[in-house]
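Morning F.,

Quick status update on the modeling queue. The single chain you submitted on Monday has been processed. Sequence for confirmation:
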Amino acid sequence: MPAQPVIAEIVRSGFVEGHHYGSVVALTPEGEVDWSVGEVDAPVLPRSCNKPVQALAMLRAGLTLPPDLLALACASHSGEPQHVTGVRRILAHAGLPETALQCPPDWPLDDDARDAVLRAGGGKERVLMNCSGKHAAMLATCAVNHWDTDSYLHPTHPLQRAIKDTVAEATGEPVAAEAVDGCGAPLLGTSLIGLARAFSHLATLHGNGSAIASAMRSHPEMVSGTRRDEAVLHRAVPGLIGKAGAESCYVVALPDGRAWALKTDDGAARARPVVMAAALARSGVLEEAGVDADAVRATGRHVLTGGEVPVGEIRAVL
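Structure tokens below.
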């Protein structure tokens, strides 16, 4: 990857002690680049930002889920009770046991949910892993089509071939790289422009794409968690759909087709919401009717402390 410019500064007591480097792109409703920072044509691995596009492929392959569970299929969930129950509902509807899941056992992402598991004497489980909603939906898609469930993560499986075709179509680009995601599923690379374009399509499509956007808008807490910045951003901007991914990747789109995608090179999760809030501000979204500008700004606020007292911040540079 080419060297990227500074997109955020680490400011402590007025002193810039470090930087986050990366790239950001904003698309117009027509899918053209409105503005960009850094190299946005180069391939990236979008990680979990791909999940709603993967879900689109599953719907096209015959998967049917109610909106809350469809949102969960797009999720990197926090492992809260409603998420775990939802995963089990997807599996039960497909007639499959939890042992069919091939994501790794893990703790809930949410601290309170993890503590509750520990207090109950529990341990890591596959159903608690943040990608288990996607995996359960993949298995349910296999069940609908009578495809093998033991090999559902193999790149040549009919499910994964369908996902690859859908990713290429939605991004408008050939798949730029093939890797393995943290959950064990195939991971398909594209540029930030391609990622933003895919979400623009989801936000404006009819049919299956509209179902995904509607599910994400009506159940943002299922896409992430009740205490996550992504859910706050969904509620703060009418009609927004968004998805964060590992290694500080983030993409959002609005119903008119505008879309933004970003990535920091160091993968620091703390910089991700800071830069996205600044990107939306640069595009004038915070001044639009119905937008809770204070809530958007709050998602982009990362305070640095010294002796439990605020002394600095992570500051976007766009």
